[in-house]
Design goal:
Layout: H1 2-31, H2 38-41, H3 45-59, H4 61-66, H5 68-104, H6 108-139, H7 142-146, H8 148-153, H9 155-165, H10 167-182, E1 190-193, E2 196-203, E3 207-212, E4 217-221, H11 224-227, E5 231-232, E6 240-248, H12 254-266, E7 271-283, E8 288-296, H13 299-320
Helix pairs in contact: 1-3, 3-5, 5-6, 6-10, 12-13
């Protein structure tokens, strides 16, 4: 009966405190809408209640005096709950910092950089909290303390073996930190990896996920972006200079086609109006190589612009100057 009363009293206090904390955070969020930290902190209610419940049960005299195994189990649960609460609080603070930065900045590039850095910082903090929590839980066992001397003596050998075994993982881990601090690639950037173009969808401590044009996901070890060259089309400015190559007959009227390109661009919403041009890039015994260039606000617009210009210029030549299209000459 005493155990049941203690459990019911601890549950009642836990539920009351959790409700009071949640109500306080809700009212603070309503009174100070500019402060973005209160709403994320409400997700810490469950681990906070668990910490309070386990702490109250451990503080009760009968548990500690009569059942040491139960008291040790409660201690392990309390340490794990504290680690869970610390991870939730850290995530809430970083999320609030990102929300506040989104409210004050209008630069998409800087916002993407901060989002990437805070995301990696959250994963690093979570990993560190998990390691510390497990270490503290292990130290509560008497056997761990008695073999401490031998563990320290063999720590050098274990460290060497672990370092060799986890060389790739550690390399990716530090590469992720280097990318977050060096701002070489961010979430939302358009990159070209091994000839495949896509948008960076997710960055973790070990891998980077690139969403390709057909919605496939390319999973790349994050160390790749530190050790090998790659293209980042949107690192500083998302605007691009798109180009279209046309192989045409020598009889093509270049000035007329240049004016047609101007009209096509003026009628295409994907063109941002900054620059355009049409030049004879090269010549061969059978064709002229023309290059049409035009600016676009981003990679998606550049793709649409290239397709539209290529289609409309070829259609114009087919209707007005069919002889300007390349022909294959065969001998009789």
């Amino acid at each position: 009966m005493l155990w049941l009363l203690l459990l019911l009293a601890a549950l009642a206090v836990t539920l009351a405190v959790g409700w009071a904390v949640d109500l306080t955070l809700r009212r603070l969020s309503e009174r100070h809408p500019g402060e973005r930290v209160w709403a994320p902190l409400r997700r810490c209610r469950l681990p906070l209640q668990l910490v309070l419940l386990l702490g109250l049960l451990m503080a009760s005299g009968p548990v500690r005096r009569t059942d040491h195994e139960l008291w040790h189990a409660l201690l392990l649960g309390l340490i794990a709950a504290v680690g869970w609460l610390a991870a939730r609080v850290a995530a809430a603070v970083l999320e609030a910092a990102l929300a506040r930065y989104e409210a004050v900045t209008g630069d998409p590039a800087r916002l993407s950089r901060v989002r990437t850095q805070l995301g990696l910082a959250r994963r690093v903090l979570t990993a560190l909290i998990a390691v510390v929590t497990v270490a503290v839980m292990l130290l509560t066992f008497g056997a761990m303390r008695t073999v401490g001397a031998s563990l320290l003596a063999s720590a050098g050998i274990i460290g060497i073996v672990a370092g060799i075994a986890a060389q790739s993982t550690l390399g990716n881990f530090f590469a992720g930190l280097q990318i977050a601090l060096g701002d070489t690639v961010r979430i939302g950037d358009t990159v070209v990896v091994d000839g495949q173009q896509g948008m960076v969808e997710e960055i973790t401590l070990t891998t980077l996920v690139v969403r390709l044009w057909d919605d496939r996901r390319l999973i790349v070890p994050i160390s790749y972006f530190v050790s090998k060259p790659f293209e980042n089309w949107t690192r500083r400015d998302p605007s691009l200079l798109a180009s279209v190559l046309l192989h045409l007959d020598h009889s093509v009227p270049v000035p007329e086609l240049r004016e047609r390109l101007r009209a096509v661009l003026a009628d295409c919403p994907a063109w941002d109006g900054r620059d355009w041009g049409l030049v004879v890039l090269d010549t061969t015994p059978s064709t002229l190589l023309l290059r049409a260039t035009m600016t676009a606000a981003g990679p998606d617009q550049a793709f649409v612009l290239r397709c539209a210009v290529r289609e409309r210029l070829v259609a114009y030549l087919y209707e007005r100057h069919p002889g300007a299209l390349p022909r294959i000459h065969t001998g009789d």
